[in-house]
Amino acid sequence: MTLTEQHHRQLDTRYSETFATGSGGIEGAPARTRFNAEVLNARQKRMKAFVDSTHDPEGTSLESESLDNIGIVQYPDSYLETPREIKLQEWEGQVQEVGSRYFSARLVDLTAGEREEAEEVDLPLDDLTESDRILLVPGATFRWIIGYRYIRGEKERFARIVIRRLPVWTEQEIRTADREAADLYNALFGDPHNRAATANRD
Amino acid sequence: MPFSEIHTIGPPQPTEIEVCVFGPSFGECIIVHLGNGHWVVFDSCMNHDGSEPVALSYLNALGLAPASAIKAIVATHWHNDHCKGLARIVGAAPAAYVWISSALTTPEFFRFAKRMGKNKTTVAGTKLSEFESVIDEIAARNKAGLLTFGYASSRMPMVKIDAKLSGHGWPCEVTGLSPSPGDTLNFLTRIAAQMPRVRQTKHSVPSPSPNDVSVATLVTIGPLSILLGADLEKTGSQTTGWNAVIAAHHQIPFGPNNASLYKIAHHGSENAHSLELWQELLEPNPFAVLTPWRNGSGRLPTGAGITNIMTETKRALATASEARTRRPLKERPPGVLRFLRENNIRIRSLTAPFGCVRFRMPNLQSGTWNVELFGSACTLAELARTKEFH
Amino acid sequence: MQVDREKFLVTAIQEPLIRVHDFFVKCFQALPETPIRAVGINRDVHFDAGSRQALDRVGDILAPKEVWQDFAMRDGKRIGGLRSLTMEQAITKQGQRERLDGLPGWIQVKVDPSAGGVPNGAYVQVNDHYELTKMGKLSDGRSAADLVAQKWDASIDRSEEYVDRIMELASDPN
């Protein structure tokens, strides 16, 4: 995703000579940008009309940009070599226990559109990266993906376990929650007659 | 017997007492007929195909309308995976009293529940949505001026039916045995430690174990007593768990007689085994029933737990046995199944085999229970013989 | 991740995509005062149509050649074709584009032949755009984080559906 500040600033000459973006040609192919000052210079001479007519400088799509603001490289050279992945199955899991070689987890089948845990599994610790191993504690949330990918025309299967780096509770969320709790509590228990001491029915 | 047979016998007579224990299925459910069409539901779980709370399925199958049949609902759990479907039962029985553990009606717990509710980021992890829905339902009733909820705690009378209205001529009462003040304090201390805070990474609802807010209850119908142990455990302290119940019983006895039927506490765990409970609150050799539990490699009851129970009674039953049901593998793309097979990864369903044990007493004077087993229910001795306990 | 004075771009080229959501939300929870004008949740996919005929089928459905006549076809042979197509979903209210959910912004779906080295490839990009300025006043990082946290799942599900629809065009109907 992209965000754009409203204040468009002119990049100074030094900046615009150092970084370059290219839209890949007048034909309008998707941007494949390169770290190349010559491309930038040539582009600046011929591309202005094209950019104005085909790019939305106010937009957030990957090609949107203002000619006055040349961004830095958008795609690394390795992008064209990146394998394309087809996801066959995705679960979100919560770690229950961590052993010496395996960890157990309860799973939600996201591919089936489910929203509650209905399965459990033991997975090998070796399938995690070193940085994820540190985060593997009971209660940690992870995604487990099985699929296949194409690298230079060759098809191969992959499986990946990634621990989620979850956001934090914000001050606003806590404040809102506390207000809702107080309102609900007062609505239910504010009136002392609501505190039923016995249940004499019938 | 298969589940399809459960309703063929028809509903209990007005003078008959019935106790049905269902589970496990992300929780357990006990439904009690006190007489004359008065039913009380304790907790909730879904039926065997997961389509509906089992309490509603069962009453509908017997030709009874839940809205008029259910007089009270007692919630002894607050995690979704221990009381699934509870909110639907509350919604289906708008005139029924809803009893919630007193600890769950404190401002601290409301704050905890609302803060946890702001975590919409993750899909996995236990939720509190059942509890929140029950509270919403109660709030709506409160707004409509209906006084139909109460706080369950030690010595709280939750249901009272006069002898003239009971159908069999005996008075009926359902009384809370827990939580004690000590249990409530423990619970609130744990909640305070796990309260979400600003700039703290969002985490899931913590494990409910031990269930400090568990509401054990005693059902008395004239001379008959039934003890429902919920998830209450025996702790080290005299002011919490079963020790607190026994201490209170020593001061003023609960009920006129010892119980002839016991829904075993906490899935028959060793932590819930109290010798004093068996000796002071139960008849010798009572009927006893438990719902098994599983989480990862954890299983309840353990072999030692089974031994403890079978030492105290020869009439112990379980609502389910793993060995009795095979669950089909979930359909997945062949590439996924191949990967799992090649890497020796086995995905297990959390949906355990499901069963029901039904107790009926046609005649209070005889004091004799008729027992039926449905689905994968079995004796505890049979459960002990299945491979998981070897 | 790439950042300049105008744009903050987070890209995942490997599953799970949820990492983009987690990183972005966490970042702007830590930078709640950052002035933000707009947020876009983009999903782009290069896919192999399978054959030249299948790729042409996609282009012919999206841009019927009967309309273009001798511009695109001559003597039964193709002399031109679809180069790029962008469709936008938005309602204009008081001069401003508004999404179906009532928020300022739009959804654009772009289809191109793929230049990503994919044989018989097509490229689909879904730009799910949210304008956050109100009456000229910028929004902030806090709001952007909240928006993405709320909208991510639905946005990705919707984008996948649009991508699937385009990919299905490559299938032989017979």
Structure description:
The complex is a heterotrimer of chains A (202), B (390) and C (174). With 202 residues, chain A is α+β, with helices and mostly antiparallel strands. Helix content of chain A is 24%, strand content 26%. Chain A has five helices and six strands, in the order βαααβββαββα. Chain A is extended. Chain B is α/β, with parallel strands linked by helices and 390 residues long. Chain B has a single domain, classed as Ribonuclease Z/Hydroxyacylglutathione hydrolase-like (Metallo-beta-lactamase, Chain A, 4-Layer Sandwich). In chain B, the strands form three sheets. An eight-stranded mixed beta sheet of chain B has the order 6-5-4-3-2-1-17-18. In chain B, strands 7-8-9-10-11-12-15-19 form an eight-stranded mixed beta sheet. In chain B, strands 13-14 form a two-stranded antiparallel sheet. In chain B, α3 runs parallel beside α5. Chain B is globular and about 65 Å long. With 174 residues, chain C is α+β, with helices and mostly antiparallel strands. Chain C has one domain. The relative contact order of chain C is 0.21. Chains in contact: A-B, A-C, B-C. The interface between A and B is large, with 59 and 65 residues.
